[in-house]
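Good morning N.,

You mentioned wanting to compare the apo and holo forms, so I went ahead and generated the holo version with zinc ion. This is what I fed in:
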Amino acid sequence: MRNGPLVTEKKKKTKWWVALGVTVTILAGASLGALSAYNWSVDAAINGLFGGLINQEESPEVIDDPSVDESETDSGQVSQNPEPDLPEENTDTPSEGTVTPDTEIPAEPQEPEKTPETVTEPYYVDGVLIANKQHPLPTDFAPGEDPEARTAFNQMAEAASAEGITLVAFSTFRSYDYQVDLYNRYVDQHGQEEADRFSARPGYSEHQTGLGFDIGEAGQEEHWAEDSFKDTAGAKWLAENAHEYGFILRYPAGKEEITGYQYESWHFRYLGKELATEVYNSGLTLEEYLGI
Ligand SMILES: [Zn+2]
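and this is what came out, ligand included:
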């Protein structure tokens, strides 16, 4: 009685395993095909996403409308941050467990970070020479102090002297090598993190363009390149009038996240009268105004 049903059941089991084996083989083949197609498309999607991340990290201050004020800028930055979209992007895909973007993203950078050693040309936007934390200058870029900027400064100083203010440009062009010494000294004194808030690393200083002017008042050296300068008559006069001579306050208060530097009431950038006046009237930083 037992033999009959046992044999039949064994045969059935064998058939079942053969069928299962065939099915598994087919499924495995199909999955492999699907997997490779999927991997390709996810890679492409991640590349696109990561490319977007890189671009936005490079230019977090991109703003289409130059008339937006500071608060709009802040909210613009927040909404541009694509990071919260990452998990959503991953779960949208049909398969699972095939790709781990967290490990792939750092492995596939879209652009190598620019350094003074790797860039060969200075960076211009609409004819404006840019030196900031995203756009370094080549180490051998050494134009010296810009003569047009010096002439404009002299005219500005003359106008200020009529109001009893004796302006001095105590630091203008600084070479790459000079900045190496200066930056290292600041790091020794304050530590690197603090130094990076007020001093450019070599190759990243606007002073290397020959267009950055640190301005103070003669006889008030104690306020030169100091926070206290902002309360002096000279600083107030500059803040109101410098644009008329082609200079803008380059690192205004409250814009550290955009310019990369804390408020420097003494650091002015020559842009020429027309552009300086436009930037001044816009109330924007140079980065915001140019949309970089
Ligand atoms: Zn400066």
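The chain has two domains: 3-107, 123-290.

Happy to go through it together on a call whenever suits you.

Best,
F.
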